[in-house]
Amino acid sequence: MQQQLRSFMTPNVYTVNETQSVQEAAALMSEHSIGAIPVTNNNGQIVGMVTDRDITLRSTAQGEASETPVSQVMTAQKIVQGTPDMDVHQAAQLMAEQQIRRLPVVENGQIVGMVALGDLAVNSQLGNEAGQALSSISTPSDPQQ
């Protein structure tokens, strides 16, 4: 039986615009206890992801000012996305293959949800797949990517 991703996603997703500052993104992460935020353009389409790690390594560690726009520290290449109708097993496999812990869920070009590896792990039927995904994610990736 196919389980759709919409049953596991968090529907209320906090986003930042690509022109907002790193400080604004970090404050939003702190306020809502989240480690990643989708970055959108003025049309609401996802153009990147910014994580607490991105902010630390690409801004703070470089001595960049807090006014740095999110667009300068976000990951913008190859944003892996899911759809609400995607099979949850397929999503777990995609997360493992792409070594990502969070998957934005997009419909009609707009972000409608977010699925974290933890969302999959709490489901007893998906616990094994989440564990396999975590194992794949935790394997060091090619530094050339």
From TrEMBL:
Coiled-coil residues: none
InterPro entries associated with the record: CBS_dom, CBS_dom_sf, Diverse_CBS-Domain
CDD domains found in the cross-reference section: CBS_pair_HRP1_like (cd04622)
UniProt cross-references to Pfam families, sorted A to Z: CBS
Segments forming domain CBS: 9-66, 74-130
SMART domains from the UniProt entry: CBS
PROSITE patterns linked: CBS
This protein's UniProt keywords: CBS domain
Residue intervals passing through the bilayer: none
Name this polypeptide is given: CBS domain-containing protein
Organism: Virgibacillus kekensis
Source lineage: Bacteria, Bacillati, Bacillota, Bacilli, Bacillales
